[in-house]
From TrEMBL:
Membrane-crossing residue ranges in chain numbering: 12-35, 71-90, 102-128, 148-174, 186-207, 227-246, 267-290, 302-318, 338-357, 377-397
The protein's name in its UniProt record: AAT family amino acid transporter
Keyword terms, alphabetized: Membrane, Transmembrane, Transmembrane helix
Domain of life: Bacteria
Length: 408
């Protein structure tokens, strides 16, 4: 890659971004139909008669959770590991064409996702019945199937734990401490990855597991549901994610940059801002979105989670595919530039967030299976079906097909 640069086919960032979004919506719509049907077929074949004989409602829920698991483990978690923690380490070790480079790296990510899932289930399933291979893939009766659904749900949201812990190591802490005490890309990348995995596993045990399993000893509950309900927890998480992403996705290191750029102090300040911001905004947005939530028939906090996730999608899209328009050449003042971009993101994100809640049933990657009856990820997962191709296109594929390699 030393003699290669990435050039855009459409020079103006707004026009290029609009075309990219149209392409991504089409790709997500078609891609989810293929992904969902293929994995439902594979899981159905593995489950055999055990799955085929389940009641229709339980079977549908089982397929929804298991297919969701393939997407969360192979796509979401691996993107965080490969692109953020590893910094796309090893992507250009072979002199391949633009498209082949992206495909090779994507297949590597999928393979790592399968290995990670296999290790996770193998060790957890030794003593935890809901995580055993047999229960997860070949439940013998309705009771085991319901247990498998719980197991899949908890395992799937290890991806949320990855997001909550491993992304801030990059967005807030700049891969500290490895970036400060090492000059080797290898040690910085893999040190950040394995520290992040430790934090993700710790967070999964502390936060995710009690959200799905209420444990008891002699009839006495020994765990509580975090935040009182999963809807409230997931809403808080989306707000937390928005605030810890903001400094790296358009805000140019602010607001903690006002205090210091020295790590780990800068990261801790950013973390505190994200935590406090999430607690402040959750009741405000819940109150504002209650009428809309009532209209569409969902919990107000679930509406908050969806609404904020849409804003996050716009934030990421604006950063990666609209190149943080307007740029420094158009607006030299950093503060003016950040404020303009934030207004754009919040405005577009708010409008689309409301529209998504009202039109979820229309989107092929949201709630519309087009009569094919394949699993759909719904109000939150469906948004990731758009988000992940958008991120893969930017990092794994270097914005292909909206860009191309050329010699310097």
């Amino acid at each position: 890659m030393e003699n290669i640069v990435i050039a855009k086919r459409i020079k103006h960032p707004l026009l290029s971004g609009i075309v990219s979004v149209i392409f991504l919506i089409l790709f997500a719509s078609v891609g989810w139909i293929i992904w969902s049907n293929v994995w439902q077929l594979v899981i159905g074949l593995v489950g055999g008669e055990s799955v085929n004989n389940l009641p229709a409602e339980i079977q549908g829920h089982f397929f929804k959770e298991s297919v969701e698991g393939t997407f969360f483990w192979l796509v979401i978690s691996t993107w965080v590991w490969f692109s953020l923690n590893l910094g796309n380490y090893g992507k250009h070790t072979r002199n391949l064409t633009h498209l082949k480079t992206g495909i090779r790296y994507t297949l590597m990510a999928f393979l790592v996702g399968i290995i990670g899932f296999s290790l996770f289930v193998t060790f957890l399933g030794l003593w935890w019945e809901p995580f055993s291979w047999q229960v997860l893939f070949r439940p013998e009766n309705d009771v085991q199937a319901l247990l498998a659904i719980k197991g899949w749900s908890a395992i799937n949201f290890f991806a949320l734990s990855v997001i909550l812990t491993q992304i801030p190591l990059v967005s807030l802490f700049g891969k500290y401490p490895f970036s400060q005490y090492s000059q080797s890309n290898w040690s910085i990348s893999f040190g950040t990855l394995f520290l992040g995995l430790f934090l993700a596993l710790f967070n999964w045990i502390v936060f995710i597991v009690p959200s799905f399993f209420q444990l008891q000893i002699d009839g006495v509950a020994i765990t509580q549901v975090p935040f009182g309900s999963w809807s409230t927890a997931i809403a808080w998480c989306q707000l937390f994610i928005f605030f810890f992403l903001l400094p790296a996705e358009g805000a140019e290191g602010y607001p903690q940059k006002l205090f210091t750029t020295r790590q780990p102090i800068s990261g801790l300040i950013g973390l505190a801002i994200a935590v406090i911001g999430a607690f402040i905004m959750l009741p405000i947005l819940s109150q504002l979105l209650t009428p809309l939530a009532t209209e569409v028939g969902i919990d107000p906090d679930l509406a908050v989670a969806s609404f904020v996730l849409t804003i996050i999608n716009v934030l990421l899209t604006w950063h990666h595919h609209f190149d943080d328009y307007p740029n420094k050449e158009l607006v030299p003042s950093a503060w003016k530039r950040i404020v303009i971009q934030l207004i754009i993101v919040i405005t577009i994100g708010s409008v689309l967030g409301i529209l998504w809640l009202k039109t979820l049933h229309l989107w092929p990657f949201g709630g519309n299976h087009l009569g094919l009856e394949h699993p759909m990820l719904g109000i939150l997962g469906g948004q990731f079906v758009y988000m992940m191709p958008m991120l893969f296109m930017n990092t794994f594929f270097d914005k292909w097909p909206m860009s191309y390699y050329k010699e310097k």
